[in-house]
Specification:
Elements lengths: L4 E7 L2 E7 L1 H14 L3 H11 L5 H14 L5
Antiparallel strand pairs: 1-2
Helix pairs in contact: 1-3
């Protein structure tokens, strides 16, 4: 397993970065494709709903939920 890699996103017009492992990043990109939205839009939606959870953790949980419910294909 490889280490998380820092990647940049734009949320509501502001640049931020998240550290995600390659497998989670690939699944996150796939989820955006399946949902028909861009990565930044998907990340913004996850950010809006995450509460006190860190953004990277919230993305991982969203990817896991999508995988468990069959939304990733």
């Amino acid at each position: 397993m490889n280490r998380p890699v820092k990647r940049s996103l734009t949320l509501h017009g502001h640049r931020t970065s998240v550290s995600l492992e390659d497998a989670f990043w690939a699944a996150f990109r796939r989820l955006a494709e399946v949902e028909g939205v861009g990565l930044n839009a998907l990340a913004a939606g996850i950010d809006d709903a995450r509460g006190d959870v860190g953004l990277a953790s919230a993305i991982r949980l969203a990817v896991l939920e999508a995988a468990l419910t069959g939304r990733l294909g």
